């Protein structure tokens, strides 16, 4: 068994982003800019946004923080996001999820201009990603693809099983692997034979949000195991110890998928800055 080291792959990616940011700033006279939008007071969301802003600073990307109150309406949030979409100084927009329940999240995400959707959350981004057209991948699945590429894990002809079908993770993950010629099965909460499906997989991606739901004994010997789950106590969605004994490659939790998600956000912000020019 060998480790898919997300910390190391993310450090390599961010070092490259840093070089590109310096070159961009020198050439255009302004730094690349990521705008973050935070609605309400969810402590975890505040922590995530702060982490992303710190990483921006470390690589020479400027960040602008827009904070809106817990009582914000859909109209107010849409107007704030539209203003950023129209602002020439902004290269990328991140609307931190989740937003308070009174807000129509879908409308708010769709207010992000696809050319600035560096978090890959709009319908246009999903379509572009699914057909390998220019655009931005949802960051967690995009980061997982970068991690697999960093270790030369070839997906062509492999049977990939994705557990979870969320808009930001499971479904886009499946589409990205399909574009790489994997044969893809998507499992979800109504799947009746999860253990059997996982046991058929050459590549398993767990994206559920339930501690150790995927048991080590289900893993086919030699399979590649990617654990996107992050649960309280630094526990993933895969039973790590037992799975590691059977897997050829496995991501640790933490230090696997998480660092790649942020690095991908910043790399895509850099892509947007370069596409948009000065
Ligand atoms: P989500 O929106 O709650 O989706 C969970 C998915 O898992 C759903 O599709 C659900 O099926 C499925 N599911 C639930 N119980 C299941 C079961 N018993 N068997 C099979 N499938 C089941 O979660 P998410 O946003 O995709 O996140 C998933 C995990 O990834 C979480 O642990 C989250 O913390 C983590 N995450 C990590 C990062 C990172 O950067 N590392 C980023 C995002 C998320 P239904 O569709 O049928 O309900």
UniProtKB/TrEMBL annotation:
Entry-linked Pfam families: THF_DHG_CYH, THF_DHG_CYH_C
Catalytic activity field: (6R)-5,10-methenyltetrahydrofolate + H2O = (6R)-10-formyltetrahydrofolate + H(+); (6R)-5,10-methylene-5,6,7,8-tetrahydrofolate + NADP(+) = (6R)-5,10-methenyltetrahydrofolate + NADPH
Organism: Nocardioides marmoriginsengisoli
GO CC terms in record: cytosol
Domain Tetrahydrofolate dehydrogenase/cyclohydrolase NAD(P)-binding: 138-275
Gene3D superfamilies, sorted: Leucine Dehydrogenase, chain A, domain 1 (3.40.50.10860), NAD(P)-binding Rossmann-like Domain (3.40.50.720)
Family of this protein: Belongs to the tetrahydrofolate dehydrogenase/cyclohydrolase family.
Protein name: Bifunctional protein FolD
UniProt xrefs under InterPro entries: Aminoacid_DH-like_N_sf, NAD(P)-bd_dom_sf, THF_DH/CycHdrlase, THF_DH/CycHdrlase_cat_dom, THF_DH/CycHdrlase_CS, THF_DH/CycHdrlase_NAD-bd_dom
Taxonomic lineage: Bacteria, Bacillati, Actinomycetota, Actinomycetes, Propionibacteriales
Subunit field text: Homodimer.
Protein's job: Catalyzes the oxidation of 5,10-methylenetetrahydrofolate to 5,10-methenyltetrahydrofolate and then the hydrolysis of 5,10-methenyltetrahydrofolate to 10-formyltetrahydrofolate.
Enzyme Commission designation: 1.5.1.5, 3.5.4.9
GO biological process: L-histidine biosynthetic process; methionine biosynthetic process; purine nucleotide biosynthetic process; tetrahydrofolate interconversion
């Amino acid at each position: 068994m060998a480790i898919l080291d997300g910390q190391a792959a993310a450090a390599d990616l961010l070092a490259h982003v840093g070089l590109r940011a310096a070159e961009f700033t020198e050439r255009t006279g302004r730094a690349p800019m990521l705008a973050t939008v935070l609605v309400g007071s969810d402590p975890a969301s505040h922590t995530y946004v702060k982490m992303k802003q710190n990483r921006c600073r470390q690589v020479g990307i400027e960040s602008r923080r827009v904070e809106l109150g817990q009582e914000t309406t859909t109209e107010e949030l849409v107007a704030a996001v539209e203003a950023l979409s129209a602002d020439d100084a902004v290269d990328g927009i991140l609307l931190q999820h989740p937003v308070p329940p009174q807000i129509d999240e879908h409308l708010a995400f769709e207010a992000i201009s696809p050319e600035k959707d560096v978090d890959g959350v709009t319908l246009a981004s999903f379509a572009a990603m699914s057909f390998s057209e220019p655009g931005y991948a949802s960051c967690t699945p995009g980061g997982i693809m970068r991690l697999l590429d960093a270790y030369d894990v070839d997906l062509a002809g492999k049977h990939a099983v994705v557990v979870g079908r969320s808009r930001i993770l499971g479904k886009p993950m499946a589409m990205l692997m399909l574009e790489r010629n994997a044969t893809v099965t998507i499992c979800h909460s109504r799947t009746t034979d999860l253990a059997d499906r996982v046991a058929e997989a050459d590549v398993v991606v767990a994206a559920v949000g339930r501690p150790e739901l995927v048991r080590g004994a289900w893993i086919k010997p030699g399979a590649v195991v990617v654990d996107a789950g992050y649960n309280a106590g630094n526990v993933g969605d895969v039973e790590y110890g037992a799975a590691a004994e059977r897997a050829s490659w496995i991501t640790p939790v933490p230090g696997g998928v998480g660092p790649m998600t942020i690095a991908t956000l910043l790399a895509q912000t850099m892509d947007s800055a370069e596409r948009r020019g000065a």
